[in-house]
Amino acid sequence: MKPHPENSPICFGSHGDKPGMFTTPSSGDVITFKLIHLSGSVSCHVAHRSNWGCTFRTESDGKMGTYIADSENNRLLPNNAELFGQTGLSCGKQLYYSLPGHTPDSPELLFDNFTTPLPVTAAQHFGVWFVEDLYNCYDEDNASAETCVHVYGLFVYAHQLTVLSIKLTTIVSLGCSVGFYTVSLLDFSRLQSHF
Question: How far apart are CA 83 and CA 70, in angstroms?
């Protein structure tokens, strides 16, 4: 099986266990991840579609529902403090979150930083998930929707005292990773404008 080309989008679905898988290009510490919407939508119900979550007429900002998970499907982002909703539901979890400055239809999704940087190794696997699909909770009424994104990781290399924004690429299966390229080498004074 051939890997996707370097600039291929990472796509994830609304139900059916369809994460968008990617790998880290090198070892280091990740501060956060950023997703840029390219096409498509996710769906929390056949009539409700958005880039990142769920929109209902009764909610002014909607609910964010896109997660980053590790290779064992443990949620890494969003942070616990951002989650809201009932925990007594059939899946027993708070599913959705709010993120200041973002709505379910924002063109980009920049997660808050990890509480402490996340150490990663080269070729470590991660997934972009829609929350209802990740937990198989309330996903039976979702449309067969799919969102495609570019994924970026904000890396810190302590020995070099530099911050690097790296575009992460898709993998075909958990056993096959593809290349990467560096978007930009940043100094701290220009960090806000590039990430």
Answer: 18
